Amino acid sequence: MRTKVNGFTLIELIMTLAVASLILGVALPSLAGVTRRTHVRTTTATLVTSLASARLSAVARNTAVSVCPSSDGETCRQDGVWDAGWIVFEDASRSGRPVAGVLSQARPSGARVQTRSSTARPLVRFLPNGAASGTNTTIEICSEGIHRAVIVNNAGRARVDASAAARLCS
User: Domain of 51: which CATH number?
Assistant: First the structure.
């Protein structure tokens, strides 16, 4: 008399693991690309939101408000590297330094996201009328071949350009 054994044989288990490994090997690289694109898009959206918030604050407070890269969340960097994050602050004296404190701060999404601007424009300053003082500025967000550029024009409008060539990210 034969007894029925429930379960899997060793061969069935090995074949299942081989198929799962093959599927995982094909899916993992595309998943990494999706993750990089998501980090770049999230960083871009966070930066555009910070710029819009700074512009709105400048108009509402009737004073200049600036956005600049910051490593410590309290002072501005002058090298155009936004990788550690950025701060929004009231800049009534137009000194480029937060005197009255920081209104908000944000960080890029993901460790491999590079965020750069020209060293000629270390910060974006919005005037009480909502305009951005100085010339147009571009802040680039890059991660391993994925690139976005946030362009702020003199009128203070920030727009995203996904087709701009990467010039500042290395």
Answer: 3.55.40.10
Under DSSP, the state recorded for 147 is E
Q: Is residue 132 part of a domain?
A: yes
DSSP 4: P
Task: Order the strands of the 114-117 sheet from edge to edge.
Answer: 114-117, 137-143, 146-152, 158-161
Q: Distance between CA atoms of 119 and 144, rounded to whole angstroms?
A: 22
HEC profile of 51-72: HHHHHHHHHHHCCCEEEEECCC
Tokens representing residue 121 in the block: 């424009």
Q: Give the residue numbers spanning the domain of 67.
A: 11-161
Could you report the per-residue pLDDT of 141-165, keeping only the tens digit for each? 988 888 899 999 999 999 999 887 6
pTM of the model: 0.81
Q: Which residues contact 166 (CB under 8 A, 6 or more apart)?
A: 140, 142, 147
Strand partners, 105: 87
141, part of any domain: yes
- Give me the DSSP letters along 76-104: --SSSB-TT-EEEEE-TT-SSS-SS-EEE
- Nearest by Cα to 66 from 117, 115, 102: 102
Which of these, 57, 51, 52, 42, lies nearest to 69 by C-alpha position? 51
